[in-house]
Amino acid sequence: MNKRISLIFALILVFSLNLQVFAVSYKFTFNDQKPKKGYLHVSKNTIYGQNSDYGYDLNTIQNGKDAFFFSVDLPEGNYKVKLKLGNKDAATNVTVKSESRRLMLQNIPTLKGKFVTKEIAVNIRNTKLGENDSVRIKTREIGKLNWDNKLTLEFNGGNPSLAELEITSADILTVFLAGNSTVVDQDSEPWSGWGQLLPRFLNSKVAVANYAESGEAGNTFIRSKRFAKILTQMKKGDYLFIEFGHNDMKQTGVNSGAFKSYKISLETMIEETRKKGGIPILVTPMHRRRFDDKGKVINTLEDFPDAVRQTGKEHNVMVVDLNELSRTLYEAWGPDESIKAFVHYPAGTFPGQEKALADNTHFNSFGGYQICKCVLRGLMDNGSPLKKYFVKDFKGFDPAKPDRFSDFKLPPTPFSSTEKPDGN
């Protein structure tokens, strides 16, 4: 039986209300692990897209040394992914990312001959809107792992090793993210949005669907049909985080401004989300890295954060005041230490980087991680029900006492880019 037929048999068809619903269940064993009954075996020769609908991807294999990727064709939706990590011949330390560098598991150690089982929840999607329409993605998004019909997992760290993998479709809570480059799943090092770090802090009972994109304002997010796509996937009880402002403030025209088109866009997303039974959460835009001569943050966002706060009060919507949280965070670091959280790197740090990178808007992974913790703190301060989904090792966060850069350990994805995100 070839691999394509095997995958077809792995699909369990469920019929309900005369509609055909696909409940997916796959089980894989890897490399020299003895194949088990009901499992599909993945050898070093199982290459995704060449001889199989699943297998090693992006020119990598599991070799006991380097990062590797595994992909499998799947319909869009939420999935529970169970991972058996470890190696019978060596100790390991594994970090798992999904799709476009969403952090799922961080630095999971195993001893030689020992294995640990972890479960994560992953959302995958495509651009389709019905039969004849689609999301209007940008040219730079074509080929992005977030917008395809497959699940891609990255295994990284010290001797990353995967023994078994189970994937099952899951009807679970979804947290949708609408935002710009400060939120987006950035594809390449050293860039990072806070949204791609969020899955690391939530348990497998909730999936994060990050629809944010670089350069987007509230109204362009709606116009490009990204918001419409969210609504097609949203269920009653799901959440939508809304964070814009950096690009909205650059717009010109009669209807532009914090209390005009910007506020209207926020209100549109609030109203339509509630019609679907979803729960909107507003997030004020975080500060850019700019200080006065006394080490205090300079507000470059004008009255856009105030527009978010006002909209929250008027419509009884929870507001995570990331603007104030980031002020506290940046001032705790100060002008010099804060550079370590942003994309500031001398020429030659990354392959093909001929010029220095000095970006005071966009974060690296450490910065995105700290901003994500600020968002979690904001949820805690608001008493959000989402607190019950926080992972056990998150003990809270005080932005006045941020984590030390020297303590941050996250293996970089083996892809980098010197191209700045849209909207810089």
What average pLDDT do the residues reach? 93
Number of domains: 2
Number of strands: 20
Order of helices and strands: HEEEEEEEEEEEEEEEHHEHEHEHEEH
Task: Output the structural class.
Answer: alpha/beta
Largest sheet: 6 strands, mixed
Low-confidence regions: 8-21
**Individual helix count:** 7
Would you state the CATH class of the largest domain?
Alpha Beta
The CATH topology label of the largest domain is Rossmann fold
Proportion of strand residues: 25-35%
Rg, please?
22 Å
Helix content: 10-25%
Shape: globular
- First-last Cα distance: 51 Å
CATH superfamily name of the largest domain?
Answer: SGNH hydrolase
Q: Under the CATH scheme, which architecture of the largest domain would be assigned?
A: 3-Layer(aba) Sandwich
Fold and architecture overview:
With 424 residues, the chain is α/β, with parallel strands linked by helices. The chain folds into 2 domains: 1-171, Jelly Rolls, CATH 2.60.120; 172-424, 3-Layer(aba) Sandwich (Rossmann fold). It has helices at 3-10, 218-223, 226-233, 258-275, 304-315, 322-337, 365-381, and strands spanning 11-16, 19-30, 40-42, 54-57, 68-73, 77-86, 92-98, 102-110, 115-124, 128-129, 133-134, 150-158, 162-169, 173-179, 206-210, 239-243, 279-283, 318-320, 342-345, 357-363. The strands form 5 sheets. Strands 1, 2, 3, 6, 9 and 13 form a 6-stranded mixed beta sheet that branches. It has a 5-stranded antiparallel beta sheet with strand order 4-5-12-7-8, with no helix packed on it. Strands 15-14-16-17-18 form a 5-stranded parallel beta sheet, sandwiched between helices. The longest helix has 18 residues, at 258-275. Residues 8-21 have low confidence and may be disordered.
